[in-house]
Amino acid sequence: MGENPEVYLIEKRYELIHSIVSQVMRGERPLTLSDMLDKIFLHKVFGIPIFLALWWALFRFTFDVSAPLSDLIDLAFSKLGEIAMTHVPNERLASFLAQGICAGFGSVLVFVPPIFFMFLGLAVLEDTGYLARAAFVVDRVLYKLGLHGKSFIPMLIGFGCNVPAVMATRTIDTEQDRVLTILVNPLMSCSARLPVYVLVGGAVLGAYAAAGIYGMYLLGIGLAVCMALLFRKAIPFFKAERPAFIMELPLYAVPTWRGLFMHMWERGSDFLRKAGTIIFAVMIVLWFLSTHPWAATHGGVDVASSYMAVIGRTLEPLFRPLGFDWRCVTALFFGFLAKEVVVETFGLLTGAGGADLREAVSSLFTPVKALAFMAFTLIYVPCVATLAAIYRETGSLKWTLFAVVYELLLAYAVSLVIVVVGHVLGFP
Amino acid sequence: MPSKVGLWMRVYSAFLGGLYVSFGVMELMNAVYTMLLNPGAESPPITLVGVPRGDLFGALVSILIGVLLEMPTVLVVTRTDGRNSLPYMLGGTLLSAVFGGLYTLILASHTLSALIAGGEELREWLAGGWLTYALRPEIWLFVSAVPLTVKVWLRARRAGG
Fold first, then answer.
1. Per the confidence metrics, is the pTM higher than 0.80?
2. What is the DSSP string of B12-36?
3. Do B102 and A426 touch (CB under 8 A)?
4. Which residues constitute the domain of residue B43?
């Protein structure tokens, strides 16, 4: 009959259930609260707008409500840096403690509140049972656009971290759908990119920062869908029939505080662990590169004469059409190790932290260039850990390299389009 | 049938929906003007206190809430009501509560930020900066919607648990 046996069996099972229910019940079954909520959340017309509205609420909650806590952390690290500079007699050690540890660590840790707030918001959506509905609503669109409904969960996990997201594609049945989902997954904006958006968006876009950040998330989703469609049409490997998406919707529930905080901590603490290990190690290397040769940089003051500047200046011509100067290029270069490092690199390059860092960064970008930079950060090469996960899950060097190359080209093209369109519209 | 809604709930919902749509359209006009037509413009076309100058997505959400609250009336007019009014009201009041609560939290967080910053920032905030956030239409529309929200949710729970 050409029908999927799994779908056929499920349809037959529900037909039987309906026939039994109609025999034992009379009249119209009263709608439960769950039925009524499903009527609106799974609505053909309103389902997607409601999903986008709740997503927007999540971003305002993440960005605006967490701000005072970030301010407090920033204040604490600025004071610590000042204490190190005034009380440590050894110049090199003082520079390491103030610029390397306090400014570097502080510039990353100020993003702990927004990340924890984002995971708290996601936990609310998940524990109430809404997230499964969102998967169902989005499946209709995903299927039409070339992705499998089961891709939604890995994509959603990708908003937290792309590494577990790539691993979560194991739930997808066919090899073609799995590889396709892995390839587009890094376009989902992980929590490590959020600090970059918050810094650059907050510094340059002012009152429009939240809209700019939300726009990046939408851009990531849009690009993932477009690339999936393109790959599906252009690459013979992906031209296969897709099985139907079947999922059991959980009941709606009132979340408990304990459950919410547990979910938030489980996911958010990954960022803290990363900050304490990889980022700390990278920070020491970056401090060395930004302050040495010690004599040439006049004791780490003149970053423009450092090894780091040499790397940035070498790559700068490639990025001139996008309007990125050597400092932006250097930040992107080291962001390949972990995206949070972009923020830290800006801190070292500008010698500023917290509110001063925002001011320093605002002088590097116009609003259009800031959007182009944020888009480039969203799209270009995923971090080392994600690349390793892609290699492990696909078992193919070819697909791993393909991911690197297509994302670099796409990042460049999208950023260029933003800059050109911005200029055409009259933005500086 | 308990999942059906009475006349006063419909009228109340339609009235609130109209207000949401009106303020949403005002916010949309401001956003389009300051973000697209005249980027960075100091004064938006609608200078009503509380109506933000450039919140495009916020404007669209307000319009969405308004449309959801208007739907019960639309269903009566088009004679397609059946048992569909209550779900729309549930959706509308839920989003109204989410965004009313969110903007209240944003007001609180900005107040806290001003207190932490102190100095000039705190003086500006106390001198009237807070009014822009406190008078955001979605906050007082949410407060006005509380009786409807309570009634709609109680009705829905009673309908089937």
1. no
2. HHHHHHHHHHHHHHHHHHHHHIIII
3. no
4. 7-102+135-153
pLDDT exceeds cutoff 70 at A64: yes
Question: What is the pLDDT at residue B101?
Answer: 96
Rounded to a whole number of angstroms, the distance from the CA of B16 to the nearest CA of chain A is 18
Has residue B109 been placed in a domain? no
Residue B90 C-alpha from the chain's centroid: 14
ipTM comes to 0.92
What is the domain partition of chain A in residue ranges?
Answer: 32-242+260-424
Tokens of A7: 């779908």
Distance CA A379, CA A387 (A): 14
User: Structurally, how many domains does chain B consist of?
Assistant: 1
- Residues in chain B within 8 Å Cβ distance of A49: 60, 64
Write the residue in A32, A64, A208 that is nearest to B109 by C-beta: A64
pLDDT in tens, A295-335: 777 766 777 778 888 888 888 899 989 988 888 998 898 88
B100 touches chain A (CB under 8 A): no
Q: How far apart are CA A365 and CA A359, in angstroms?
A: 11
Cα nearest neighbour of B60 on chain A? A53
Token pair in block for residue A371: 């959007």
Q: Return the pLDDT at A353.
A: 63
pLDDT over 70 (residue B41):
no
Is residue B124 included in any domain, yes or no? no
Q: CA A277, A279, A280, A284: dihedral to nearest 10 degrees? A: 140
Count Cβ neighbours within 10 Å for each residue of A335-372 and write b for 16 or more, e otherwise.
bbbbbbbbbbbbbbbbbbbbeebbebbbebbbbbbbbb
Please report whether residue B122 resides in a domain.
no
* Structural domain includes residue B84: yes
Residues of B in contact with A64 (CB under 8 A): 105-106, 109-110
Share of chain A above pLDDT 70, in %: 90
| Number of residues that make up chain A | 428
Judged against a pLDDT cut of 90, whether residue B14 lies above it is answered with yes
Q: Which of B36, B91, B160 sits opposite A46 (nearest CB)?
A: B91
Residue A2 has pLDDT above 60, yes or no: no
Of A81 and B21, the one with more pLDDT: B21
